Amino acid sequence: MHYRIGLTLLLSLGLMQIAAAQSCLHTAAENSRPSIGLALGGGGARGTAHVGVLKALEEMQIPIDYIAGTSMGALIGAMYASGMNADELESDLGNMDWDLMFRDQTPRDFQTFRRKRDDDLDYIDPSLGYRDGQFILPEGALVGQNAELFFQRMTLEKTWNDSFDDLPIPFRAVAADIVSGEEVVLDSGSLARAMRASMSIPGLFAPVELNDRLLVDGGLANNLPVQVLRDMGADIVIAVDVSSPMLERDAINDVLDMIEQMSNLMVYNSTVSQIRLLSEQDLLITPPLADEVSSVDFKKTLDAMRIGYDATLAQSDRLSTLTLSTDQFAAHRHQIETCLTGRPIVNFIQISNQSPHSDDIILKYLDLWPGEPLEFAALDRSISEIYGLGGIREARYKIVRKEGDQGLVLTIEPDRRLPNRLEYGLSFFSDGLNNAINVRAGLLRSGVDQSGSEWRLAAQLGEQPELFAEYFRPLTPVSPWFANPRLDARRRTFREFERNSAVAEFLVDTVSLDLIIGRYFGNHTEVALGLSRGLGDVELVIGENQPELSFNTGSLFARYTHDTLDDVYFPTSGTSARASYLTARGSLGSDDDFEQFTLNYFTTTTLNKRHALQLGLNYETTLNDNAPIYGLFRAGGFTRLSGLEFNEVTGQHYAQLLGGYRFQLGQSGLLPAYVGGTLELGNTFADRSDINFTDSLFNASVYFGYRSPIGPVYAGLGYSEGGEQSFFIRLGDFLINDQ
């Protein structure tokens, strides 16, 4: 009985939504007044001025019956056409995280623990693919994963329809076919996908494959779609041009100016040709943005909105002829509101999965309750976690109707660079006396099986040469348990200093095989146990009367790792904690018996978005004070006693407290810069009984940090108690890192 009542209710809700959609088939003006179309042009961040234009038009009670948009104009036009009002647009876009919008990477909170550990390798994005004897480059710097999720959430909150004529306000998005250069007018399908196609700037965003075409930013073909509105049936057109003006001769002085002018030229001719189509009864609004907002100035969104608002009010005399009475405008807005279907109800799920992950893995992360209104926050998290599995080009969804029912189709496209990813990276450190550079490259093969297994081969040349190979396999497709055997060969340098001069230097070469089994607890925690067996030798490079030796290693180890940092290099929130225990025994094949315990802790929080406070603790100890030379702990260098030279001190024990502060110089930006400083108290010690504040050294640093395209860059000054100072430049590695 309850089942039948519930089924009847669901069918009734579905019929109500369908009826609401059908009532929108006649949203153009039904009375004797001329219909009004709004053409919203492209212009990047300058396009947010469209919100101010809409706000002013609403205040003047001017109805909009059709909308056509290109690029940013398509984004804002689609949101408005879906039923949002100007105040909602102002709030959502004014508070939007544009930096996240222009990143594909899944927020670390949603990444699997396995993918988080990729950050430890310090590779540069984007990696290359290799298949069938060919290297595969990315289609663009971004695919638009986060952007399309945002577009879906903004529009589906209000309504959804396959035909853009059935939206509360009929709408068209303009894109360009990158193959033919032709204008493509999008009038049906996924509204979010049409928005993304219209704004896919070549080189920045990958093209969108739609209806057997490769679509890119519509500004290349028609940046101000006046004629599109004529074809839709608009009698009067209000066109809003936010394109960047052409540079004057005296303003073109270098290669950057040339690139900017070329970008302007790509949209100039189409914009001018569309403006010429305007008649005397039409209206052109050109917000004066040139001196205040550039096409990439997304931190000035509110300024652009204000300028668009003022520019529209400045033409109030001409616009007044289009104003409706209060009752008429209220009826117009009511007609729009009757078209809103609200959040869709999902009664079935279809998965189109071509990724290296099985359907079972995908379903494990999909948090949906059939028969309930779609919860976008939960769905966005599910999609982000699926994307964070890796090996995925794009994870997207759409709402469909099938046999009178509503459902969700989830599409998972594989990364076109699979199955082989070529990874590469670079790290550099200099303190004036010592220079350390490492160049690394690796091969990651994904999709070994449906369980999500993968193997990796990596090599590093330079100050710390290393070669390792590993195989990672979940025990079942949805199991949190995994096996991770690893073969590693590396060289590390140990130095002894007296009065800032190295009196001894050792090269320690090791080869080891680790057999590891572990378990993940969600995305943030790993517990692992391992058995290690290896061999090595110690070579004296500087110094006298030090024996060279060969040795065997054999040990058992356990580790606990917890990672909630939102970023590896410049974190603003979260905690990183790692505890490990190692016991080396002759019964396991080791020449030396010793035990070690390490605890590394780092946490950070941010105040007012730009001020980050940090606290760190390192405690690394040999329990019996008897570790051989290859097992000693090292310190010295940025954030590990910053005033000392790189790895200047070694010992059986290492302890340090750290406090830090960092300030983000810009409020926004794809590659932000920072200034900061640290206070550190610590040292290495020969005996555990020596660990105390009296024998610890006070260190401090001030630094400049920048997230460059090839990795994080730090440059600063370090100071150590006793007067020792160092100037350092560093490329790569996390703020507090095991060296």
How does this structure look, described?
By secondary structure, the chain is an alpha+beta fold. It has a 19-stranded antiparallel beta sheet that branches. Strand 24 (594-607) and strand 25 form a beta hairpin. Helix 2 (49-59) packs antiparallel against helix 4, helix 3 (72-81) packs antiparallel against helix 8 and helix 7 packs across helix 8. The termini are far apart. The model is unreliable at 1-23, 25-29 and 735-739 (pLDDT under 50).
Short synopsis of the structure:
Helices cover 21% and strands 38% of the residues.
List its traits.
elongated, disordered C terminus, 32 strands
Write the layout of secondary structure elements.
Blueprint: H1 2-22, E1 36-40, H2 49-59, E2 66-70, H3 72-81, H4 86-94, H5 98-101, H6 113-116, E3 128-131, E4 134-136, H7 145-156, E5 171-177, E6 183-186, H8 191-198, E7 208-210, E8 213-217, H9 226-232, E9 236-240, H10 255-275, E10 283-285, H11 301-313, H12 316-319, H13 326-338, E11 348-353, H14 359-365, H15 376-387, E12 392-402, E13 405-414, E14 420-430, E15 435-445, E16 454-462, E17 466-474, E18 481-483, E19 486-498, E20 501-521, E21 525-542, E22 549-563, E23 574-584, E24 594-607, E25 611-622, E26 633-635, E27 649-651, E28 653-664, E29 673-685, E30 697-708, E31 711-720, E32 724-731
Parallel strand pairs: 1-2, 1-9, 2-5, 9-10, 11-13
Antiparallel strand pairs: 3-4, 3-14, 5-6, 5-8, 7-8, 12-13, 14-15, 14-32, 15-16, 16-17, 17-18, 17-19, 18-20, 19-20, 20-21, 21-22, 22-23, 23-24, 24-25, 25-28, 26-27, 28-29, 29-30, 30-31, 31-32
Helix pairs in contact: 2-4, 2-11, 3-8, 7-8
